[in-house]
Write a structure and sequence with these properties.
A: 2 domains, B: 291 residues, Glutathione S-transferase Yfyf (Class Pi), Chain A, domain 2, Rossmann fold, four-stranded parallel beta sheet, 8 strands, globular
């Protein structure tokens, strides 16, 4: 039985570290049947990505390989695999948990630094230009309401949100 | 008259006046009142969930709290917004421990998640709050002979355990809504597979390949247009056609119309009132066919 309140990361294996995370709880239910891989729209197009393989590496404690490779970033979050998993492993959410760990360790494609930065600055991940805002009137759309950026930033702080780092050479 | 808080999210106000305009016009024609609330933020979809799941859930809950305070259910137009908010809403209603954790965070901004409202997709409001019968009655310009390929996208349907919109493997509500306008919904290969939108900027080639197969398969099925429910799917398939032309020299000239745009046309809204000029692939072929 796993203990969900284990705190000392150095004393536990990687799979336990994952199961303690939001979204990572179901990892150890995976019995490697491959239903996920055969349901995946990406796996058939890109040999770098195979959800079953990611779960296997996480179960075997291959932390560095999971966190520093390309694979975890290639999931489209379509939830096909999670929908079909006979063990109710929350695969798409497990990939979010793995990405959360990777970002805390400073590994992520540069686009996440853009998303994180925009969220903190504007409370939105896609900026709305003054031009577009002015255009609304022309279309007969009501003016946009203010965004709760201040509250949002307090929530980010209270939940330990780390803005992903921008690296010089893009992946 | 049913009232909803409209949740616009980021991409629709930034890039798709055509979706917002047609959704507002159609809901108004179908006797739904939309309220624009102060302080809604980003819903915190997959790109932010990838950075921090807990922050994302707490911010989704914050947005739900704003609607709870106004005593209104939420209607979301974007699949991403719908999924983030509806998932958080369902999870927090079900899991007391999670609710207590999130409420501890929300207390810092003077909010508390109660679990008193519903988060609905635009499509769901049409089906559950308006109904096919009323839509059929209000159609003044039936889209007869128009062959429409419905594209649900991912986050209207999955994860179905939390979203509960329709059967995730054999959904029917979009097809029924297309039929209610007098048009013919088409079956095609890989209908329920992802548009690739969330891979943009990470693996552009795979993202484009996913869009390309939708274009090829709907074209093969004889579609006059693809109908979408999500701004990301729309962009992937609309602007995607320009990229597919550049990379593969394939020209589909397949108009992409949000369901709200088809609905608006069938309800008698004039095309020039619909911001159709923001489409990269022009909708003229569709307009000619239904004229």
């Amino acid at each position: 039985m796993l203990h969900h309140n284990v705190k000392k990361a150095e004393a536990i294996s990687f799979s336990e570290e994952v199961t303690c995370r939001h979204g990572g709880e179901t990892l150890t239910a995976c019995y490697q049947c491959g239903t996920c891989a055969s349901s995946c729209p990406v796996a058939r197009l890109d040999s770098r990505f195979n959800p079953r393989e990611i779960l296997k590496l996480a179960l075997l404690g291959e932390k560095d390989e999971v966190l520093s490779g390309d694979a975890i970033w290639l999931c489209t979050s379509c939830f096909n695999c999670q929908e079909r998993c006979p063990q109710n492993v929350e695969i798409a959410e497990l990939i979010f948990a793995l990405r959360n760990i990777a970002i805390e360790a400073g590994n992520s494609p540069n686009i996440y630094a853009d998303f994180g930065g925009a969220l903190i600055a504007d409370g939105r991940i896609v900026a709305i230009s003054k031009f577009v805002e002015k255009k609304r009137e022309e279309f007969g759309l009501p003016p946009l309401k203010p965004v709760g950026v201040e509250d949002l930033n307090k929530i980010l702080e209270a939940t330990g949100f780390t803005k992903p780092e921008q690296k010089e050479a893009s992946k | 008259m049913k009232r909803f808080a409209i949740f616009l999210g980021c991409t629709i106000p930034a890039r798709q006046p055509n979706y917002e305009l047609s959704a507002r016009k159609t809901l108004e024609k179908l006797d739904v009142e939309l309220v624009d609330l102060d302080n809604f933020t980003c819903c915190c979809p997959a790109p932010i969930q990838s950075i921090n799941l807990e922050s994302s859930q707490a911010i989704a809950a914050y947005n739900i709290c704003l609607a709870e305070e106004a005593g209104l259910d939420i209607v979301a137009l974007c699949n991403g917004c719908f999924e983030s908010l509806a998932m958080a809403n369902a999870a927090l209603k079900k899991d007391k421990k999670l609710k207590a954790e999130i409420n501890k965070v929300l207390a810092k901004v003077g909010k508390e998640f109660q679990g008193t409202i519903e988060v609905k997709h635009f499509l769901q409001v049409l089906i559950e709050d308006i109904g096919l019968k009323k839509i059929q009655e209000k159609v003044t310009k039936p889209l007869s002979s128009l062959k429409v390929a419905p594209f649900y996208g991912c986050h209207s349907l999955r994860p179905s355990k939390l979203l509960q919109l329709d059967d995730p493997e054999r959904p029917q509500i979009f097809e029924n809504l297309i039929e209610s306008l007098g048009a013919e919904p088409l079956e095609y290969r890989n209908k329920l597979k992802c548009c690739g939108g969330l891979l943009k900027g990470i693996s552009d080639d795979t993202a484009l390949e996913l869009a390309r197969e939708k274009l090829a398969n709907t074209n093969k099925a004889g579609a006059d247009c693809i109908s979408t429910l999500c701004p990301f799917c729309f962009v992937a398939l609309d602007i995607g056609q320009i990229q597919v032309k550049g990379k593969f020299q394939e020209i589909y000239d397949m108009p992409i119309l949000h369901y709200s745009e088809l609905l608006a046309l069938a309800l008698g809204v004039a095309p020039e009132e619909l911001a159709l000029r923001s489409h990269k692939i022009k909708a003229d072929k569709v307009l000619e066919k239904i004229a």
